[in-house]
Design brief:
With 202 residues, the chain is α+β, with helices and mostly antiparallel strands. 54% of the residues lie in helices and 9% in strands.
Length: 202
């Protein structure tokens, strides 16, 4: 098996999804955590001037979702058929929408506008979004197929990140989504990572 080197800052951010997939698959990798003063030197050496990056056999990959999909394929978590893989992508894209909307609210500089956006996001968008996502969970308690996939892990990761600065709907009120969260946190590799991962400021 080749060596995998994941590089990001000392935080969860956009690299945490990749770390969770590595953990779920039981795949060893080097978890490099940059200090801020190391970034200016590395930045021009990256494909698109950003992190995370994953280095594999002399090839450098960027874009967190692309890296996560690659690792998920290695781990058998990407979906078994092209249709299943498309459904995984669908869930990932939906969660990306949720994250971008939350990010937009969080970084709004005008206080009055921020309060208005936050109210709409928490009281209107998120409940509607959770309702839609809940309907996409199968009887197995997974978004795709009958076992854990990247789709489930992405839902867990994004809701955890957004929940750090937004009030989320109570997942216990959404039977399907509660099962998804339970399946993710009960995966042995992920459970171990959640217990042992470093405490970080973000």
């Amino acid at each position: 098996m080749p060596d995998y080197k994941l590089t990001y800052f000392n935080g969860k951010g956009t690299a945490e999804l990749v770390r969770l997939v590595f953990a779920a698959g039981g795949i060893e990798y080097e978890d490099v955590r940059l200090q801020q003063d190391q970034w200016p030197e590395l930045k021009p050496k990256t494909p698109m001037g950003q992190v995370p990056i994953l280095e594999v056999e002399g090839t450098m990959l960027c874009q967190s979702n692309s890296i996560a999909r690659y690792v998920a394929k290695l781990a058998g978590l990407a979906g078994k058929t092209p249709l299943e893989q498309a459904r995984v992508d669908m869930i990932m894209d939906g969660m990306e929408d949720m994250g971008k909307k939350g990010h937009d609210v969080h970084w709004e500089k005008e206080e009055g506008k921020k309060a208005e956006k936050k109210k709409d996001y928490e009281e209107t968008f998120l409940p509607q979004f959770y309702t839609c996502m809940n309907k996409l969970v199968g009887d197995s308690g997974h978004f795709v197929g009958n076992e854990l996939t990247l789709a489930d892990i992405t839902f867990f990761n994004m809701t955890t990140l957004v929940g750090n600065y937004m009030k989320l709907p109570n997942v216990d009120e959404f039977t399907g989504l509660k099962k998804v969260m339970d399946h993710v946190t009960s995966n042995p590799g992920i459970a171990k990572w959640l217990k042992e991962r470093p405490e970080t400021p973000f």
